Amino acid sequence: MRIFSQYYYFSFYRASIVLCAIGTIGIVFCGLVTSCQQQNTTSKSTVYRYFQPDTILLERKEKDLYWREGEASPLKAEDKALFQGLVYFAPNQQYCVEARFEGLLRQDTVRLQTSDNELRTMLRAGYLHFAIGKDSCRLTAFRYTGVEGRMQQGYFVPFKDATNGTDTYRPGRYVDVRIPIAGEPYIIDFNRAFNPYCNYNEDYSCPLVPQENILSVRIEAGEKIFFHPRK
Hints:
Shape: globular
Structural class: alpha+beta
Largest sheet: 5 strands, antiparallel
Number of helices: 4
Radius of gyration: 17 Å
Helix content: 10-25%
Strand order of the largest sheet: 2-5-4-3-8
Distance between the termini: 22 Å
Order of helices and strands: EEHHHEEEHEEEE
C-alpha cells in the first residue's frame, strides 16, 4: 500500500524548474461543520498581491505534464496513456484569502484515519481563521512527524466543503499553507487546492479529513473530481 504524504506532493512545482519533492497528501475531512457566521475580515488589497492567476494556470499545465510523463506520477501506466488532463475551477480571487493563525502553545498529537483503515500520526499545530465572502470559517492546520515534518515548509490543511460529491472529490481535498516571513500574512489560496492521490489510484493510503475541518460553504476553487479514463 503506497503512502500518500502531503508535503512531497509537488506543492505545485512552481514551474517545472522547481519540481518540489513529490509526495502525498492526506484526504481532507474537515469535520463537524465549521459554522460560518456573518463577518468578513479579509483584506482585498492585501490578497491582491498574492493572487497570481497566470502562475496558477502555468502550474496546472506543468502538473498535467508530470502526471502524464513523470516517473513518480500517481497514475497507473494504463491511465497515463489515456490521461487528458485534470479539471479545475477557473482561478478566482475570492478564494485566495488572508487568514489569522492561532497557534497552539502545545501541539496536540492526533491520529488521522486513512483510506485503508490505518492511522496516521500528525501534529495539530493551530487554527486558521478566515472569511469566504461574509462567512467566517476555521480550519485546523497540521504538521507531519518524523522526516516529513522536518522537510515540511508550511501546514497541511485537509478540508471538505459543500462542493464535495458533486463538483469535487467526495472525501475532500487539501491545500498547503506556507508559514510567512515576519510581517507577512498567512494566505490560504484555495485555487491551489488539490485531490489526494487516492482519487487517481486506489493503491495509495490517504489520511481522511478530521471532523473539525468540514466547512458549510462552497469552495468553488482548485481541482475538481478526477474521473478515471478506463471507468
